[in-house]
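REQUEST FORM: STRUCTURE PREDICTION
Request ID: SP-0412
Submitted by: Lab K.M.
Chain count: 1
Length (residues): 318
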Amino acid sequence: MAVVTRSIDVPGVGARGSNPRQWRHESRRDRAVLSGIYLVLALVSIIILYPLIYIVAASFSSASAVISNRVWLWPVHPTLAGYLGVLDFPGVWQSYLNSIIYTVFGTLLSVSLSVLAGWPLSRPHLVGKRLVVWLLLFAFLFSGGIIPLYLVVKDLGMLNTRLAMIVPPALSIFSVILARSFFRSTVPEELVEAAQVDGAGEFAVLWRIVLPMSKAVLVVLALIFAVGQWNSYFYGLIFLDSQSLYPLQLVLREVLVLNELSPSSLSGLSPQQIAHFQDVQTLVQYALIVVGSLPMLILYPVAQRYFVKGMRVGSLKG
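STATUS: Completed
RESULT:
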């Protein structure tokens, strides 16, 4: 039995399903829009990348070239004087170690608190959940200020200790809301109920089911807290008196913001070392920026894939 097919010619419709002229016009318009988008992205990339490239180039250039503004995209009269000055500066490496300690332990504590607060708030049958959420939002909008915080830290005996850099910023209400939204939109309620039927408790469900499914939001929270903790200097400025406990950002503040090496920073150095620091002070500034930014510049590309996924999925439900 033969099957006869019959094509229907529609006026104005070509082989591509539309008028060829209209199709070419739309294609040309789409290419123009894409070209404009790429141009804007290129300009934004240049605006973001140029300061980084300039700082790296200046850190390897001679002091005279930097002062005379002859450095643009590559080093002029390359030298390692700035980095050698950083190596000779004793306060940098102690503060570098302090920042690593504050970042690692502060991030672990902050992520743990965010998960332990966000998971119960994502459960549908939690008693008083709405009240707790409203209290968190109220605390998010209004804070007591720095003086009550200082008095609390003082009463807890954490002044001039490492805990003063780890405990006060440990809990972020934004991170709790982010974790709660992620759990609500990602973890199936049926899977949790099945685990509970099999005899799993709340912590077993959280540890064995929820956390393995939540790598994206865990990386997002870890990255947010790590960057904030690494760049933090305000709590150290208020709560710390001993220079041996200073984070790296306080040392950078002395060199960059105050634009000089303070007497406390130069204590313990020989006159020759002091003269060397004064000669290469400009190079030390740029070298310290590079050294201080390097860990976060390495960390972010590694976590970028999880960061984008966690922010996108966690924002689907409120």
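NOTES: The two ends are 60 Å apart (CA to CA).
Reviewed by: T.R.
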